[in-house]
Amino acid sequence: MHRMKEFYLVSDRHIRYAMMKAFFDARMIEGSSVREHGVMMLSLVEKLKDLQADFNKEETYVDVILQSLPPSFDQCIMNYNMNWLEKNLHELINMLV
To answer: Which Pfam families does the record cross-reference, listed alphabetically (predicted)?
Structure first.
C-alpha cells in the first residue's frame, strides 16, 4: 500500500476511498468459491484497518460481507441473523465455507 502511494503520489484519502468502494461493491458470483471470496473480503478489511478506515464495530464488516453473498446464501444469512450468532470475521468465513 505504501509503495502504491509513493509510486503514484496518491493520497491516503484516495486509497481509503478506493478500498472502501471495492469492499462495499464486492459481490460473490453464484457458484464461485466462498473461501476465495472470504479471503478477498478479509484482505480488504485488513487494508481498510491499515488505512484507519475502521468502523466502530466489527458487526459492520460482517453485515457488508453477508450482503456481498449471492442469493443461494439467503437461508444461511437469515439463520445467522435470526439466531443472533456472534462470530468474528474468520469464524464467519469458516461458517460460510
So the answer is: Retrotran_gag_2 (PF14223)
Mean pLDDT of 29-51: 92
Classify 84 in phi/psi space as left (phi over 0), alpha (psi -120 to 50) or beta: left
Domain boundaries in the chain? Answer: 2-96
Evaluated on CA atoms 60, 61, 62, 63, the torsion sign reads positive
Q: How far apart are CA 45 and CA 93, in angstroms?
A: 13
**The model's pTM:** 0.75
